[in-house]
Amino acid sequence: MKHKDIRRDMHRIALERELLWLGIALALYIAASAVGAVYVNLPKWATLILAIVPIVVAAVTPLRNAFGKILGGKVLSYELLIVLACAGTACMQNFNEAFFVLVAFDAGSCFEHIFAGKNQKRTPYLAFLRPEYVAVEQDGRMNMVDPVRIRPGTVMTVGKNELIPLDGIVVDGSSSVDASAYTGDRQPIDVGVGNEVVSGCVNLGNTLKIRVTGLYNSSTLVRASQAVESAPKSVSRREKRFAGISKLFTPIVIALAIALVIIPSIITGEWLDWAHRALIFLAAASFAQPLIVTSMAYFAGLSTAVGHGIIIRGKSGLEALADSATVVMDKTGTVTEGSFSVTGVEPKGISSADLVSLAAAAESYSNHPIALSLRRASTTVIDPEHVTNVRELAGRGIEADVYGRRVLVGNTALMNSNGIKCDRTDRHLSVVHVAAGGIYYGYIIIDDRVKDGAKDAVRELYDAGIEKAVLLTGDTERVGKAVGRALGVSDVMTELLPEDKVVAVGELLREKHAGKLAFVGDAVSDASVISKADVGVAIGALNPRAAASRSDILIMSDDIRKLPLAMRICKAASRTVRLSLLLASVVKLAVLLLAALGSIGMIAAVTADTLTFMLTVAGAYRIYKVK
Prior knowledge:
Blueprint: H1 2-38, H2 44-58, H3 60-71, H4 78-91, H5 95-121, E1 134-138, E2 141-145, E3 155-158, E4 168-172, E5 175-178, H6 180-183, E6 189-191, E7 196-197, E8 202-203, E9 208-212, H7 220-230, H8 237-268, H9 271-283, H10 288-307, E10 310-312, H11 315-322, E11 324-330, E12 341-347, H12 352-362, H13 369-377, E13 387-393, E14 397-402, E15 405-410, H14 412-417, E16 431-436, E17 439-447, H15 454-464, E18 468-472, H16 477-487, E19 491-493, H17 498-511, E20 516-521, H18 527-532, E21 535-539, H19 544-547, E22 553-555, H20 562-597, H21 602-621
Parallel strand pairs: 11-18, 11-20, 18-19, 20-21, 21-22
Antiparallel strand pairs: 1-2, 1-3, 3-9, 4-7, 4-9, 5-6, 5-8, 10-22, 12-17, 13-14, 14-15, 15-16, 16-17
């Protein structure tokens, strides 16, 4: 929190300093006006001093900023151009105009610091979480060790209300942990022996002993914090393009300002008039303020997303999701619970209990959710030592020798490939067929329930502007279509092996006519598909492997309803950036044209620029209200 407070204080101090100089300048101007009104016959030098001093004081802020940018290598800054334009105007004895232009600039600068400070207050808490020590018991004493020095396998102790400093597995104790820094949700998570916990969560209850599973620098907290901190520093394609235009625009306008002085003045002889128009040109010769607004809008979008448990790794990822017209979703764990359970058994020539036990035995070594559900449902414990020659077949099932008999557990394709005829199961959502020694023994009905709110999430995606939603699954066509109907998704691609999903996404990329394609799935099992899509979204990403993945967007919880929320936030930020750049460009070009025609003064030109800046910054701040 110290870094956050320091940066917030920097904005506050800068604002107070600029308000002080602005107040002094206005006070001096009022005093000079009062003296001039009372003493009308002052010497010329005294009148000149009274006019120039408020201008010099008002120029302190832009001069300081200009020198700072010169030291940083940027010579033609907006602040320098404003100072030069006002200096030229003062030389023409248009003192009031020069003063009020500087006041307008100072007001805009104060406004910028106000909103920058508000933005800093919105910086996600996750970016400032830093564990100071790890409590490790050694020789009966509790030692406080630097997290960087801790190695995997070390058992650390985390007390009540303490931050979990490193990723690990609970080996003693049970408690609840607060993961709201990641998920944005205050609902605590219950953990006990054998459960995985991640760094950055807070232990809310009893003392936990946790075996460390990874180094500090590769922990979930460090990787997530780095993603949150680096995202605002990234540069989007839109920013690059506009910055390139700005670099060309500024010197071109300066050249046109010089030409505006020389050419018409030679023809008309009215040097002062055309010089004044050129100075207005000079005052408008920068696109620095629109770039500031775009940066604020992106920051607002990125930090708002983190506040809801959504980490967007960079501005390009934000823009890509905002431009997505096609959303492809993996079924298991994304739109369904991914926690399977046995809901029915249809045995043939064997008891229901024996059928489930036989399937559970073959799945003894698998960590697949279906395997876990079968083992939970089994009433007989088979010694894994009697289960040998296990072979997992991706997208089909598993083969294993159980007490010397070859057992097959899987889908219809597995049975057919081994010449075993199995029952039709059209009326069931998902089934596992079981055969042993070449004999078919029936099937087990498995239920993977559609997540609460998944259908609403799909509807909200369409409301947000997507054109097409696609569901990918390794299940049969009938199962996939049933889930698709439950979600309101008509485009369902079924019976896909993991490698088939990569091919399917490639085909969808070639077929799409407009926009980007977003794929939503698990950061680990769907890593190859995520990297194939225009924008990869990992859901349920509260684990070290997900944090280390190449996903563009991490939804830390399993809540699919955060996907349309992420899209709304990204679209709001992207829309604000586009409108800000468009409005600033239109106002800028209009000011230049009117200045060339002599239809606008410098005060009006700079005021229009400043008001546009304030309006667009206020628009950027509204992104925080997206829900």
